[in-house]
Specification:
By secondary structure, this protein is α/β, with parallel strands linked by helices. The chain is built from 17 helices and 11 strands. Helix 3 (59-66) packs across helix 13.
Length: 345
C-alpha cells in the first residue's frame, strides 16, 4: 500500500508573518519562484519510507506528514506500509526503501547475523509499548496477579508485543507459564477471536482495544507500556551506506520528524486527532481522539528523537529474558544520535 505525500502549500509571505506573530508556526514551504506545483514537487528529494504498520500509535510521524514538515525540509516522501518488521528490513536491505520504521530489535538481529551493510537507528519515535490488557469485565482494581491461571490471547513468539508482555509479567514476579498464553492466533485476529468468546483476557494494540470497548466486548484494565518502562519500541533506521552517502537527507528527514514531535508535545489530543484524521479516514474522529488520549496520558512519545543507550540496553535485556538474543550488540554500532541531537532546536 503506497501513499504519496504531496501537500505543498504556497502561502504568501505576509500570511506566514501573521501566523508567526500569533505564536504558532503553521507555514508550509513557500516558493518565491514562478514554478508550478508539479515543478516544485520535482525539485524536492524523493525519499521512500517503509513503516512496520499504519497505526495511530505513530501519531507524531503523521503530524509531520499532514502539516507538510517533510516538504518544508525539501523531501517528497512516499510512505509504504510493510506489514511486519521482517518485511521492512527486507525492503531496506534490498534498497526498495531508503528509510525503515520498525522495532530496533530487527537491526540487532541483522547485525548478529553478520549483515555487511549495518542497519543503523538514527531516530526513536515511541518510548512505551503500545498494547493494553483487555478483560471481559471492567476492573478498576485490576492486579497483574489476576492473570494467573487464565487464558490470554497474546502475540507471536519472539515478537515485541509478546516479549514485552512477558517481561512485565516477570517484573511482577509472575512466570509466563502460570498463564495459558495463546500465541497461535494471527496478530490482526486476536480481537475478533476475543469477541467470539476465546480467552479471558487479550493483549491488544489500538484501535482494537478501543473497538472492543465500543462494542461492549471488552474493557481496558491495564497498560503494558506503563509497566514496561521506557522501551525503544519503534525507531527510524537506514543502511550505513545510505547514511554515509546522504547525510543531508537523513538530517532533513529527522528535522521534519522533530517538528512532529514538538507538535504533539504542545497540542491537545483533540488537536492532534484532527491533524492526523486524513491518515485514518475509515476511523471516526472521536475514536481517534480516544486513542490519542490514551497514548498521550501514558507518555508514549518522546520530546525528542534521541535514542539513548539506557533504552537500547533495556531492549536487549528484554530480548535476552525472552531467550531471543544469543549475544549483545554494541550500541555505538547500531545507533547514532548525531541527527536527532542536531534536530532539537
Amino acid at each position: 500500500m503506497k501513499k504519496k505525500i504531496s501537500r505543498l502549500l504556497c502561502l504568501p509571505l505576509a500570511l506566514c508573518l501573521i501566523l508567526a506573530g500569533c505564536g504558532k508556526d503553521s507555514s508550509k514551504t513557500a516558493s518565491s519562484s514562478s514554478l508550478t506545483p508539479a515543478e516544485e514537487q520535482e525539485e524536492l528529494t524523493p525519499v521512500t519510507l517503509n513503516e512496520v504498520a499504519h497505526s495511530i500509535f505513530y501519531a507524531p510521524m503523521y503530524v509531520a506528514i499532514e502539516e507538510g514538515y517533510f516538504e518544508e525540509e525539501g523531501i517528497n516522501l512516499t510512505l509504504v506500509t510493510g506489514f511486519g518488521a521482517d518485511k521492512v528490513l527486507t525492503a531496506l536491505i534490498s534498497g526498495e526503501a531508503d528509510i525503515g520504521f520498525m522495532g530496533p530489535e530487527s537491526s540487532i538481529y541483522a547485525y548478529l547475523e553478520g549483515a555487511n551493510d549495518t542497519v543503523v537507528n538514527f531516530a526513536q519515535l515511541t518510548q512505551r509499548a503500545g498494547n493494553f490488557i483487555v478483560a471481559r469485565e471492567p476492573a478498576d482494581d485490576f492486579q497483574w496477579e489476576d492473570l494467573k491461571g487464565t487464558d490470554v490471547l497474546g502475540g507471536r513468539k519472539g515478537g515485541m508485543p509478546e516479549m514485552v508482555f512477558e517481561y512485565v509479567l516477570k517484573q511482577k514476579g509472575i512466570d509466563p507459564s502460570e498463564l495459558n498464553i495463546n500465541q497461535s492466533i494471527d496478530f490482526g485476529s486476536t480481537a475478533a477471536a476475543f469477541s467470539g468468546g476465546q480467552g479471558d483476557y487479550t493483549v491488544e494494540f489500538e484501535p482494537s482495544a478501543t473497538a472492543l470497548e465500543e462494542q461492549g466486548d471488552g474493557f481496558v484494565v491495564a497498560s503494558v507500556g506503563e509497566e514496561s518502562g521506557y522501551v525503544p519500541y519503534t525507531a527510524f533506521s537506514a543502511k550505513s551506506s545510505y547514511m554515509e552517502e546522504h547525510p543531508e537527507i537523513i538530517q532533513a528527514f529527522t528535522d521534519a520528524l522533530q517538528k512532529g514531535m514538538d507538535y504533539v508535545q504542545t497540542h491537545t489530543p483533540e488537536e492532534i486527532a484532527e491533524v492526523i484524521a486524513p491518515q485514518f479516514a475509515e476511523t471516526e474522529l472521536g475514536t481517534i481522539t480516544t486513542i490519542i488520549t490514551r497514548y498521550y496520558e501514558q507518555d508514549t512519545w518522546k520530546s525528542n528523537l534521541i535514542f539513548e543507550q539506557d533504552s537500547f540496553d533495556l531492549l536487549q535485556d528484554i530480548l535476552e529474558t525472552a531467550g531471543e538474543l544469543a549475544a549483545r550488540a554494541p550500541y555505538e554500532e547500531l545507533v547514532t544520535t548525531e541527527y536527532a541531537k542536531a534536530a532539537v532546536k
